[in-house]
Design a protein that fits this description.
The chain has helices spanning 13-19, 40-43, 77-85, 91-101, 117-128, 147-162, and strands spanning 2-7, 28-33, 49-52, 69-75, 106-110, 132-133, 170-172, 179-181. By secondary structure, the protein is of the alpha/beta class. The protein has a single domain (2-162), classed as Flavin prenyltransferase-like (Rossmann fold), CATH 3.40.50. Bound molecules: flavin mononucleotide. Residues 8-11, 34, 76-79, 111-112 line the site of flavin mononucleotide. The site of flavin mononucleotide has 11 residues, from helix 3.
Length: 189
């Protein structure tokens, strides 16, 4: 699998960097940073191939590059609006446009609170086009006693949506009220 992670300029860029931490080594990971150079240090040690947002001629700008799935974590309202309008003036927005035209999975994690009507309309438009709108909203039914556990839950949900196996959080099992170690959908025992 060839996975592209785009990190735009919303609050929570650290969560985008942490998204890389638990990925299986079998996944080829590409990263596009918007102008948040400060997170570069957090990518050190990762084997991801990093592209700059201004590199509009980089591989992810073309459908023929073969990205299988794209995630924008976090997704600023600015980047969200551009994607919703089909603007591809940076590598991040172009890569999202490529995912849309190639009918490949595109996950956006919009980070804003509260959302404006404009942002909500943009999200609804994209959702209707098949884009996964998955903001970093914590769940409260698992055992989250630390911020890290809460973040692992959110990252695990994103992995679920992208079909990436993980054991990042304990799943709700139903009537017993107990949770179980995570198994991705379709994951074998
Ligand atoms: C400290 C700070 C925090 C910000 N947090 C957010 C945020 O959470 N969500 C958002 O949509 N924009 C946020 N912004 C505004 C974006 O950074 C701004 O709209 C920028 O143009 C986004 O550029 P990009 O979409 O190319 O990354 C923040 C800006 C600053 C300076």
């Amino acid at each position: 699998m060839k996975l592209l992670l785009c990190i735009s300029g919303a609050s929570g860029v650290e969560l985008g960097a942490k998204f890389l931490r638990y990925l299986p080594e079998t996944i080829e990971v590409h990263v596009i940073l918007s102008d948040n150079a400060r997170i570069v240090e957090r990518l050190e040690g990762s084997s991801a191939i990093v592209h700059q947002n201004e590199q509009i001629g980089a591989g992810p700008a073309s459908g023929s590059f073969g990205i299988d799935a794209t995630a924008v974590i976090p997704c600023s309202m600015n980047t969200l609006a551009k994607i919703a309008c089909g603007i591809g003036d940076t590598l991040v927005t172009r890569a999202a446009a490529v995912a849309l035209k190639e009918r490949k999975p595109l996950l956006l994690a919009p980070r804003e609170m509260p959302f404006s009507p404009v942002a909500l309309e943009n999200m609804l438009k994209l959702s209707r086009l098949g884009v996964i709108i998955a903001p970093p909203v914590p769940g409260y039914y698992s055992d989250h006693d630390t911020l890290e556990a809460m973040e692992r839950f959110i990252i695990g949900k994103w992995y679920d949506l992208l079909g990436i196996e993980h054991e990042l959080y304990r799943r709700w099992t139903g009537e017993t009220g107990r949770t179980e170690p995570s198994k991705s959908p379709g994951m074998k025992e």
